[in-house]
Amino acid sequence: MHQGELVKIIKDEVLEFLKQNNKQEDLDLVGMPSRIKKMEELLNIHSNGVRFIVIHGMGGLGKTTIAEVIYDKYQHHFECHSFLKDVRENSKSSNDAIHGKKVLIVLDDVNENFQIERLVGSWKWFDERARIIITTRNIEVLCALKRTCHGHPEVYGSYQPDYLDANESLELFSKHAFMSKSPPEGYDTISKEVVSTAAGLPLVLKVTGSSLYGETDEELWQEKIKELKNIPAEEVQEKLRLSYDPLSDAQKEIFLDIACLFIGQDKTNPCYLWDDCGFYPRNVLNILIRKSLITVGDDDILRMHDQLRDLGRHIACEGKLDEWGRWSRLWDCDKAFEVYRTGQGKLYSDSIETLLEHLFKTVNGDPMWDLTWSISDSIETLCFA
Predict the structure, then answer these.
(1) Which residue stretches of 44-112 are H helix?
(2) Is residue 60 helix, strand or coil?
(3) Could you tell me the pTM of the whole model?
(4) Phi/psi of residue 328, nearest 5 degrees
(5) Which range among 45-49, 203-207, 257-261, 349-353 shows the weakest confidence by mean pLDDT?
(6) Is residue 204 within 8 Å of 164, Cβ to Cβ?
(7) Which band of pLDDT confidence, cut at 50, 70 and 90, is reported for residue 320?
(8) What is the pLDDT of residues 118-127, one digit of tens each?
C-alpha cells in the first residue's frame, strides 16, 4: 500500500468518526431530520449528473441552517468544497478553481441572478458529480436557473422548507427560553400563547425565547404576548425589534455597528473601538449572543442573521431612506462618497462632514474608500475596513 493511499484511508476514517459524533447534534436541531431527508433526496449524492438545488423562502425560515447541516455531513465526499456566506454582500468570482472537479458548493443568501453566474458560471463547466446548493429569498433566482438549464430539468431542483409545526415551534422556543425541550411546570399554556404568535418561523421563536430566558414575571410574559399579537405574522422585523428595543444604549450601539459595519469581521478591532467608547464590549457581546441577536464562533468572527442585519440597517436609516447624510452609519461606499461630495453631512452634523474628510481621497477624480465609519451620538469612531 502506498503512503498516499494510507493517508486517504486514515483521513476517511477520521471524517466518518467526526460525522457520527455530529449526527446526534444535527438531530437535536428542531425539525431538522425531515428537512435533511428531503434535501438528500434532491441532491442524490451518489448519482451522476451535476445538480443545482435552490433552497428558497422568506428570511428566518432556516434555509442557511439546512444548508450548513448538509454541507457538514457530506463535504468529505468531494474533492473540493466551499461554503460561501453572505453572497448578497460578497460575490467575488471563484469559478476558475472548480471547473471539471467533483465539488460541493453552497452559495448562501443569493439575491441577484448575476451572482450565480459570477461565482460558478455555467452548469456545463462542472464535473457530473458536482453539487451546488443555493439559498435565497428571491424566487427569481430559481426562475433564472430554470431558464439557464432549459431542456435539462434534471440539472436543477428546488426546496421551500415548511414552517415549523406547533410541536416543533414549542420545542425550539423552550430550548431558548428554558434550556429544555419543553416548558417547565406552570409555563406550558403561556408558552403556547407566545409560540402561536411566531407563525412557525424559527428565527422569531429563537430570538423571542432568548429574550424571555430567566424571566419569571408573568405580567412581563403577558405584555410580550400582547406586543407580538399586535404585529402581523408576516412582519418579521417588527417582531424582532421587540427584542432590540429593551437593550441598553451601549448594547444598541454595538448591535447597530455589527449590523452595518462588522458582519464577517474579527471582533478584535471593533472591541478596541467600543472599549474607547466606554461600551464594555465583551460583556455586551455576551449579552447579544445570549439574546440570539448575534453569533461569534471559535474563529472570533462576528455574524448575524440577514433579517437581524436588515433590521439594524433600517434602524440606522431612521426612516430617512433617501437622506443618507442623516443616517447614523454608512456601510455603502458609493453612498458615503456621495454624502461627502455633496456636503449632505454638513447640513445635519459638522462631525459627519469632518469625519468624511478623513475617509476619502481621490485618484484621477475617482473616490478611494479608506475607512468605514460609525457615529454614536457625539462620539466619533474610525475603524479600518
Answers:
(1) 63-74
(2) coil
(3) 0.68
(4) -75, -20
(5) 349-353
(6) no
(7) low
(8) 665 566 677 7
